[in-house]
Amino acid sequence: MSYDDTPPPGPPATPRAASRRKDRRKSGKRHVGRWILIGLVVVVLAAGGTGWWYYEHLNGNLKGVDLSKQLDESTRPKKAVAAGNATNLLVLGSDSRSGDNGKLDAGNVSGARSDTALLVHIPEGRQKAVAVSIPRDTLVDRPECEKHDGATLPAAHRVMFNSVYSLAGPACVVKTVEKMSDVRVDHLVEVDFAGFKGLVDAIGGVTVTTDEDIHDAKSGFDLPKGTHKLDGTDALKFVRTRYGHGDGSDLGRIGLQQQFLLALLSEVKNQDLLGSPTKAIKMANSATKALTTDEDLASLTSLAKFARSMRGIDPNTMETIMMPVAYDKQDANRVVPAEPQAAQLWKAIRNDVDIPESAKKSPATGG
Predict the structure, then answer these.
(1) How far is residue 325's CA from residue 364's CA, in Å, rounded to a whole number?
(2) Is the entire prediction scored with pTM above 0.70?
(3) Could you tell me which of 88, 7, 56 has the C-alpha nearest to residue 349?
(4) Using an 8 Å Cβ cutoff, are 70 and 153 in contact?
(5) Picking from 10-24, 76-90, 240-254, 316-330, which range would have the lowest pLDDT averaged per residue?
(6) Which of 253, 271, 120, 148 is nearest to 202 (CA)?
(7) Are 240 and 105 contacting, i.e. CB atoms less than 8 angstroms apart?
């Protein structure tokens, strides 16, 4: 299947029509560079038989989670009529230390946790987006879930948000986020720890600017203030550093993660994928190896179609905020959703309206 929208050749064009076509072609080229998979499909399918082998190879890299089987549809939030065709995408960063991940970041942590969690709201019209970070140290009410082995994990009160993933996997995280926010999660994308490093290296590095020195004695990561182009290894340390930035809490780290996300998206947008098929394939290979998605996105064709629907979004205008939290009164090392700010935030997302400024202010800031 091809995603080329170019119409078949017609009669000779007038100079004005030719100019309009030229403008459309220029605009199309700018859009193609924004998303890896769109350019990939064009390049791969144009390559013929060999290209089809690559397509199948990349398609096989993707892993899927069947949310429809693991979640009870009758208990899930319904999409508000006011939300129209808005989409909510839950993005998880897995910090598993198994396999290739065990070689990275000198980690000595058993199991796996959701090190990063973002609910990305894409309003109807697909012209902008907002990414809401959910702090991993947030105390939440976990619903009853099915564990990896099929056993039932009972509901629990005041558990750490990032423990949900390690105990019951990504479907339970979706269920927990939906319970907490009453927002319907339309799609899930999980990014693997080692795959993240490979993607950054395939892109050629990502440029970030810091206004203060980062010195993380625990991980050994040092970064003087200023502008730096980070390779995959340092990028991973940058988004995971905790003790060398802000007050050393997870809240301080969220700011770095959001900064890097926007820098990464901008770097992808600026890549000339059609001008460099080899680079496009390398990037796509790393990207697909890193991804686990819900069943509806678990194919290259579906991912490309989804990415194409968002080509009007400019990373430079994407808004990043943190779910408003307050320090827990019983344990100052943990946070809880701050009210009424958190409720205002989720209500705005449910109804696909602008998030009020009051809902963006968090009593706990992490320095």
Answers:
(1) 6
(2) yes
(3) 88
(4) no
(5) 10-24
(6) 271
(7) yes
